[in-house]
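Structure (tokenized):
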């Protein structure tokens, strides 16, 4: 076996006992959503060399409060557009400037319905 750290799981998820140092390590898994590409990237944050299990539990609670928040999952391109639209209205932009792309780009039939394939809308 190499000189890598040997960790074993404890009864608490995300907390590991490090046999090499005799202390606890905490791993917090979280995800981030890119507002530009709307893709999710999965990340993890480690805290090392915590002397007791109680301190490891406290550190896990702190990491989850910082990195895992319900608000971080709700941000999408639609939410970003709604925020931009609200800001544009407050700054008194012309409606044509921020609503121009929502017009139907496809064919319309006699009832005024637009071809769904060519309709570009964020809402």
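Design, position by position:
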């Amino acid at each position: 076996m190499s000189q890598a750290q040997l960790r074993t799981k404890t009864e608490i998820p995300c907390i590991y006992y490090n046999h090499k140092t005799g202390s606890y390590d905490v791993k917090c898994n979280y995800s981030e959503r890119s507002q530009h590409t709307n893709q999710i990237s999965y990340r993890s944050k480690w805290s090392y060399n915590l002397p007791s299990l109680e301190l490891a539990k406290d550190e896990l609670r702190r990491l989850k409060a910082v990195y895992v928040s319900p608000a971080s999952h709700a941000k999408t391109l639609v939410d970003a557009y709604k925020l931009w639209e609200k800001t544009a209205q407050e700054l008194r932009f012309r409606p044509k400037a921020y609503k121009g792309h929502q017009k139907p780009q496809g064919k319309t039939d006699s009832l005024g319905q637009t071809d769904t394939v060519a309709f570009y809308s964020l809402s």
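Reviewer-requested clarification: Confidence is low (pLDDT under 50) at residues 114-123. Residues 53-67 form the longest helix (15 residues).
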